[in-house]
């Protein structure tokens, strides 16, 4: 397909009249040839489409999914269910989505009670359409033969301005939906109740759930009296209470304490101190010998507890949580726990204390590590420590994989009637901050298994200390490398945080498997932004 005009391509050459006629004649023949080729291509595409239309349905007839045994298909269906919450009434996810594929799948799905054995029921969504109430009834009826996980959200919490109280919006049908749900209580295994109205709570009162293993209530303290029968269940193992006010007389609750493996009691909006004294907390521990997880915030405004010869043995306890990291307990609280309670399998320990002091108030963090050598998740307040004490404290936890650190305790934030128990310690030496912490941890023999580090309430952070720490930790073997670093800065509300690392540096460490986040100090009482579809979460 050569041409004598090739050397003129890409130049400003202007052909003569004779050359123009020659080029036009050449283009005419070439254009006709191109049209013939296009027609051949069209015919080939048409033939290809015919062959594909012939092949595809026949391939589908002999496909492996079509030949799957019903029991195998059922296992696959179960794996399609949500794993971190209950299923919801949405055609965009299992199990409803599976019913929309084909009639065979629909028949299989509807014949599997276990596929319908979890459901989240947001009242504000269901009660807007009466057909949805019938759908809830049908859903639970399909699962009646199985042990069910159900969660109810009775109200929508709407937040306004940052400092304003939330507005709680209820849709109520005089308890009819609750009564419909209660008919299937014999199959309940896990139940979560969130912000029920009084009518709904009354409609659920007195129901019996012989299979119940987990009970979680978020909402009004006075509703507990409606669920005596549930709390007395012979199989009950988990109780989680997130309440709007203090729970008075916790020890009088009609709970089979000796069965519990998980016990959580604190406020719904913010884990502030409960009305449970330290003494009552220890009695709860004594009554719950099978505990694996314990999270109860003790009363702070009390005098030291005289525990005498009291001794509690918890052979299975792995997780012990009290106040959140931005609060600090007096030393004698922990001294009492250490002296009274034996926890040989303890692995997760959040009991923030001010480790400074003298005399009877003095408590060495290193002694905690010696008492509980298996601890791998620990919370510490470092403002009361100097560099040497911090080094000794961290060396006492050889199994540590997750460390949460409060780098500063601003007393002004807690000028309440409990304020006397929140203090800043002056031990006559330089207190540690985030930079000193990172310098200590730059020695990879200290907490050599550390994988997660969370630092809250730091005012400043040395870029050099951070880079030195990251360089040391990321050079370790892959199994021992840091995989998560979270740092919150103590700033004015709304003031942006200037990260000590550039986006390029953060992306580089992410490529090595390290997630890094910098953000302002968390605000107490922050709005709950969870979706109304949120289901039963692990406590």
Provide a concise account of the structure shown.
By secondary structure, this protein is α/β, with parallel strands linked by helices.
Question: Can you tell me about this structure?
Answer:
The chain has 539 residues and is α/β, with parallel strands linked by helices. It has a domain of 46 residues. 30% of the residues lie in helices and 16% in strands. The chain contains 15 helices and 18 strands. The chain has a 14-stranded parallel beta sheet with strand order 1-2-5-6-7-8-9-11-13-14-15-16-17-18. It has a two-stranded antiparallel sheet with strand order 3-4. Helix 11 links the parallel strand 13 and strand 14. Helix 11 runs parallel beside helix 12 and helix 13 runs parallel beside helix 14. The longest helix is centred in the N-terminal third of the chain and has 45 residues. It is extended. The relative contact order is 0.06.
Strand order of the largest sheet: 1-2-5-6-7-8-9-11-13-14-15-16-17-18
Q: Approximately how much helix is present in the residues?
A: 25-40%
Based on Cα principal axes, name the global outline.
Answer: extended
Note the main sheet.
14 strands, parallel
Q: Please identify the structural class as seen in this structure.
A: alpha/beta
Features:
539 residues, LRR_dom_sf, 14-stranded parallel β-sheet, F-box domain-containing protein, alpha/beta
Secondary-structure map:
Blueprint lengths: L16 H45 L8 H10 L23 H8 L7 E5 H4 L3 H13 L5 E6 L1 E4 L8 E4 L5 H7 L5 E7 L3 H6 L10 E6 L8 H4 L6 E6 L18 E6 L10 H10 L5 E4 L15 E2 L5 E3 L9 H10 E2 L5 E3 L14 H7 L5 E5 L5 H9 L6 E5 L27 H8 L10 E7 L4 H12 L9 E6 L13 H9 L3 E6 L19
Parallel strand pairs: 1-2, 2-5, 5-6, 6-7, 7-8, 8-9, 9-11, 10-12, 11-13, 13-14, 14-15, 15-16, 16-17, 17-18
Antiparallel strand pairs: 3-4
Helix pairs in contact: 11-12, 13-14
